[in-house]
Amino acid sequence: MANGTLAATLENYLEYKSKKGIFAWILSTDHKRIGILYLVAMVTFFWVGVTLGFLMKLEMLTPGKTIVDAQTYNTFFTLHGVIMIFLFIIPGIPAVFGNFFLPIQIGARDVAFPRLNLLSWYLYIIGGLFAIISLFLQGGPIDTGWTFYVPYSIRTTTNVILPLLGAFILGFSSILTGLNFITTVHRLRAPGMTFFRMPLFVWALYATAWIQVVATPVVGITIVLVIIERLLHVGIFDPALGGDPLLFQHLFWIYSHPAVYIMILPAMGVVSEIIPTFAKRTIFGYKVIAFSSLAIALIGYFVWAHHMFTSGMSDTSRMVFSLLTFLVAVPSGVKVFNWVATLYKGSIELRAPLIYVMMFIFLFSIGGLTGLVLGSLATDIHVTDTYFVVAHFHYVMFGGTAVILFAALHYWFPKMFGKMYNEKLAIWATPLIFIGFNMLYFTMFILGYLGMPRRYWSYLPEYQTLHIISTVGSWILVAGLMLMFGNLIYSLFKGKPAEANPWGGVTLEWQVPSPPPVENFEEIPVVNHGPYDFSTINENKDGKS
Amino acid sequence: MFQIASDYAKNVDNVMLYIIGISVLLLFIITFAMIYFVIRYNRKRNPVASQIEGNKTIEIIWIIVPVALVLTMFFYSYDVFKQARAVPPNALNINVEAKMWAWKFTYPNGKVTDTLFIPVGKPIKFNITSVDVNHSFYIPAFRIKEDAVPGRQNYMVVEPKEIGSFDIACAEYCGLNHSLMYTKVYVVPQQEFSQWMNGEVDEGYLRKYVAMHTGGYKDYLTGSYAILFAKGCVQCHSIDERKSIGPSFTELRKGKSNVIVNGKDTTITIDKEYIRQSIINPDLHIVRGYEKIKMTNPMNNLKKEELEYLVDLLYNNFVKSKQ
Hints:
- The structure holds 2 protein chains of 2 kinds.
- By secondary structure, chain A is mainly α.
- Chain A has helices at residues 6-10, 23-26, 31-59, 70-89, 92-105, 114-133, 152-155, 161-187, 200-232, 245-279, 286-299, 315-343, 352-375, 377-383, 387-417, 423-450, 464-494, 534-539, and strands at 419-420, 496-497.
- Chain A has 18 helices and 2 strands.
- In chain A, strands 1-2 form a two-stranded antiparallel ribbon.
- Chain B is extended.
- The longest helix of chain B has 34 residues, at 7-40.
- In chain B, a hairpin with a 2-residue loop joins strand 1 (92-99) and strand 2.
- Chain B starts with 6 loop residues before the first helix and ends with a helix.
- The interface between A and B is large, with 91 and 88 residues.
């Protein structure tokens, strides 16, 4: 790099002004600024989704109508699913924290294709806008459920095509981000940063990126086929036109099951960062964790039809997919064991991010273990499409991915914004979130086993007691979330300045100032040890490394 | 609370207990270890961490043991599941046809009903299909569920063990009234079932039989509201005081009703004819304070004999027994 630009590029990325006003952000190709752009959009969508979920639980307070009619409720759960899945959880951790930290963690100045990165953000926003615009057009908001099952999605009179196009465009955002990350990992690692010296968050993002690139086109094609069928009445999925409804389900889940791993793998990566930092020791079984990410990504492709055990597939398919599903549970379990083992003989500081991670381990374990009930044929037949499934995926996706997104926010907030939050408040939010969460979702396991189907606007009176507990839980949970986000937003403006390395972490992002300079590194570092090597760091503690 | 209506259901519960038992144990170990380590290896107690990179033996153990555990779960569960798929040669075939938003059951002799009647102790094969969108035929008490997919015939086998009545729900989202797509299955003795098939007794007789068997005849006349659930009435009209979309049935106890007929307020004395008219032609009298809402398919859901039964039930339970 030429010396003339050195001063400018060493300026902190938040203050550096290449363009005027908002254009310095929305036209920025800096991976860190793009990460922040995603964060703002995603937190907004998250709260829209939370509001819808909150209203749904309010409706469930009584059998029959409580606040809205059936049609409105049906659009609520569709939009809640579409927003939470396509606009929040799938892009989630990779788009925000992957963008921000992947280049820094491997010692690069940016991702491989910065402009493509900005384009991905625009595609994400356009996709989101398509979904939002569809709400206000004639025909009304989509009411198919986020799974868009045919023939209903071919026949309903609500606006199906626009949100589908939105999902199609979002798919490209996801593919391009994946492509960018794969190239970045292969081409831009700092000298000495071998694959087995990469932080496990990078490994997780790398495995995720491959799923994004390989699986997402399938859902793109499926969406196009549904649109063609709706517009031109070509028989593809609707039997009335000569199509096959099961074909849709297969195509849909060939993407949407691996997508579950797009959602959870990056979160697992974050856990593998946070635990060593606060235990001040190297991770237990680095290679096993790294390879289990790849194993999950790979086996994750072969279990999609466990979403279809009652669809009428052949018994042989049911048997094979059940067996494979049980096997994919093992690498996730191994990761949990490794994380807990990493706490063994550590020197543990119980700070806010670690508390969120502990909450994750408990909730995610419940989510994963109840997944065994759903992988098992006999029990799945009974509880599939009931509240049991709703509880299960909220434990995995909310208790898993979203709680880790909160942990990541608290872990990297000082680095991203150069400000420290009120850690006491951050910790106080956790019991509210934990109690509210379990009241809200654990009751759903029982409701499901009792036979309460999902996507029900009304229900039999005998389920009411459990629904009331669940609804009250949702209020406590929302209070906890408000406290947590309120604390962070307040600290954004009023927080004390953060140190470069407030937690004593050893991965590369902790070697640069908070917030990082525009091009991250004054000089590209040379890496000569593993990612969680606390022994070398302890020796050089006083000197600058 | 957890109804068990067949041996298969009991077996499914056992699989559930097996999986949940192991899961609770694992969850306990994980949580306990995590909390114990955080306390025991706290910075104050343990200022210097040991840099342990791994342990091959332990890592191999915790890969092998879970694999073995999940394989036992898989085989046990698959073994039970097969029972719901094996079709015995003497199975009674009943065709189940779903549509938005009702069920239609066709028996071997061509009889058609919207409530399901099956004989106890006999294997029954349900041939399940749909005429419009996807539905799912779900009987929680039997722990069975199979999608009703247009253009396909799916099946499930049950062998009911107990006389009684159980809910049938739709478990695959099918649009507006998905949550109202409930009906009932009545499990009756073989003899009564044959009599009914031969036309010697009617559905009311079977309902009464089941009610007597499970709750007593008095219950049937004064307390059993099964039909109100089966026909979806309670989705909008509660049987307690609660206000819902429509007036609560308990309002019938007042003996008189303030209604709007053709836009005019009047007061009507509640008798059987009023109840009958309110079911056949719900738009005629609108009870004050409620909106005029299209009642879902009132008459397509009810046969004549069911209508009379319903009128008697409501009259006897609410109007006559006002307290």
